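sorry for the late reply, my laptop died twice this morning and i had to redo everyting from scratch. anyway the thing you sent over, i finally got around to it. pasting the sequence first so we're on the same page, its 376 residues, then the predicted structure underneath. double check i copied it right bc i was rushing
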Amino acid sequence: MKTRREFLRVAAVGAAASATQHLWAEQTGRTAAVPDVSGANSLQAHADAHGLLVGCAVVPEKLTGEPEYAGLVSAQSNILVPENAMKWKALRPAPDKFNFSGADTIVAFASAHGRKVRGHNLCWHVAIPDWFAATVTKDNARQILTEHIRTVAGRYAGKLHSWDVVNEAIDPKSGLPNGMRKSPWLELVGPDYVDLAFRTAREADPAPLLTYNDYAIETDAPDETEKREAVLALVRGMKKRGVPIDAVGVQSHLKTQNPAPGKGLRDFVRELRQMGLRVFVTELDVDEKKLEGSESERDAAIARIYRDYVTMMVAEPNVDAVLTWGITDRYTWLNGPKWARPDGKPQRCLPFYADYEPAPAFFALRDAVDTRLAGR
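ok and here's the structure:
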């Protein structure tokens, strides 16, 4: 329980940051001086003070080729995750070849700047190489999966904070037992492919926190509630079988038109805590393609979602990390054709605008971090 002094300190910090955010958000055309978000005012500094990891998904080519991007990532993050560079398609140009250049760039950047790295991911049904369908069969799938994990996890042994070992294995809409997703791995290896991936990852590198990662489990909508329960059942079964799992990643691709996450997700996080598992917010952003209003009105709505969601999550002692899926609107996946706004305007979904200036979402995220007590 917070002491009165702690409560007042948190309230004062939050009020000051909110005042800065409101002043900045109200400026039309952002003509006023940009608020200082460096040094002690950075998200990283606030997170360090409250015992949290905060960071973002990164693109290696931008880290090496765009100093402003690299500087922003370094200034605001204490943990990084590759957006695509550790996925099978990026790593495996051919069945007998690996290309670690992008992944190595990220790990080297993090090491040079004293940042942690999450690995993403060792097993997924998406972003698999073009050669996969003609090469991987029921006879060799188990061997190919284990060799991939041994090679990739082994290369970065001792260097990573955590690994998303299996990504998105649950999809009740597939209509399969236990809510399992219909995927190449399920079809070629069998339902024990999840256990196999985790056991192999632990053998390859005992150090990182091994994580199961999934999306659309945040709200209390019926479909997300059903999926969340299936994820919980999967994890519970893994623990019962002695499978080495340390954490669950809640992707947190939130949408402005969806109900706000609440009791169901809190109960989920707390039940995972009872199992001794950590929880990471792994891919946070806000899809605002259906959000109407002026840019300042949209920014305010997006900021409220960031503040409310992250405040709720970091109140739980086993939530250790919050990572956004990108750091600037300039390079968000949500500005791809599939997620385009009807008015043709770019999405404003991340803590920094496309011109690298801080958005109200940044201050909302920093406010939320300040509600966390250090040492939780």
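The CA atoms of residues 174 and 181 lie 6 Å apart.
thats about all i looked at so far, will dig more tmrw
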